Amino acid sequence: MLKSPQGLQLFGGSVALGLAARAVVRSLSYSPPEVWKPKPALGQFAAINKPTAGPQKELALPRGKHDFQLYSMGTPNGVKVTILLEALCDEYSSFDYDAHLVMINGDQFGSEFVDINPNSKIPCALDFSTPTPTRLFESAAIMTYLCETYDKKKLYFPDDKRTEIMNWLFWIQGSAPFVGGGFGHFYNYAPYKIEYAIDRYTMETKRLLDVLNNRLGGKDKGIFAGGPFIVGETVTIADMAIWPWFGNLCLGRLYGGSDKFLNVEEYAHVCKWAKMMSELPSVARGRMVNRPWGKDEEQLHNRHSRADFETNTQDKLKTKAE
Ligand SMILES: N[C@@H](CCC(=O)N[C@@H](CS)C(=O)NCC(=O)O)C(=O)O
C-alpha cells in the first residue's frame, strides 16, 4: 500500500493509481470555485448520480398478481420493508406481495420508477388495493402505510407506542445517511481514503451506536426503554427499520471489516439485540428478498409467493438451469 506525504493511502493498479493519485493531489489543493460545476465522478456509486432529477430512460416496471408491488434491492433501506412484509405474511395468511429487484446501477432512473419515486431511490411501491393505485416512497413512509393498511391486529405499530415508535423511525431516517452516505462511503467506497472524512463519520456512527446502546441497556430515561426491543417488550417497525443498519453493522455484515474498526463489542446491548433480531424468521427471509449478492442460497431476486424461498433462490434456479 502506498502512502502520499500527507498519509493518504492509495490503491494499487497503475491506471487506477494514476487517477486516484491525481485526485488526491487535486483535493489537497482544492479551493471551491464560486459556482460548482459537475465533473466526471470517480469511484463506485458516485458515477451513476447526476445533479439533476427526473427519468433518464424509458423503462417499464413489471407487475405481479398481488395488490402490493415492491420495487427494491436488498440494501439496508430495502430490507427494512421486506422484513415487515415477511412479518405480515407470517401473521396474516391472506396477505402476500410481489417484490421486484431494481438494480440501482441506473434502473432507478427508469421512467416508470420515477413516476413512483421522483427521488429515484429504492425502495418504492404501488398498492393496487385502493380505488386508484397508491404510490409509496421513503422506507419509513412505506412501513407506516403497510401497518395502517394491512396490520389489522396493530402488532408492529401499536397505538400506545405510536409516538415513541415515530421518534425512532425519524431517528433512523435522519441517522442512516451519516452511516451509509458518510461512514460507509468514505470508509469503503471512496476511491481514496480521506482521514478527515473517515474520522468525522466514524465518530458520528459510534455516537449513534452509543445512543442505541443506552436505549437498549436502560440508560435512556424515555418511555419503553431498556429493551429487549427498541420500544419495549415486542418487535415493532422501529426494530425493523433500525436493524438493517445498526444490527448489520454489529454483525459485521456492512462495509468489510468495519465491525472491528468501529469496535462494536463496546456496544454489548446493541450486539445482543442484533443477534436476537437476526434469528427471527421474518428477518432471515426479509434480508434475502431482492438481494443480488452474497451466498446463492440467500438470494431471492424476485419474490412472488411464500414458496419462492424454497424453490426460487439463486442456488435452486442454477440447479434447475443445469
Ligand atoms: N431515505 C430513503 C433512502 C433511500 C436510499 O438512499 N436508497 C439507496 C439504496 S440504500 C438508493 O436507492 N440509491 C441509489 C442512488 O443513490 O442512486 C429511504 O429510506 O427510503
UniProtKB/TrEMBL annotation:
Residues 65-154 form the GST N-terminal domain. Residues 158-296 form the GST C-terminal domain. Residues 294-322 are annotated as: Disordered. It holds the Pfam family GST_C_2. InterPro entries: Glutathione-S-Trfase_C-like (IPR010987), Glutathione-S-Trfase_C_sf (IPR036282), Glutathione_S-Trfase (IPR040079), Glutathione_S-Trfase_N (IPR004045), Thioredoxin-like_sf (IPR036249). It comes from the Eukaryota. Belongs to the GST superfamily. This is Glutathione S-transferase. It comes from Triparma laevis f. longispina.
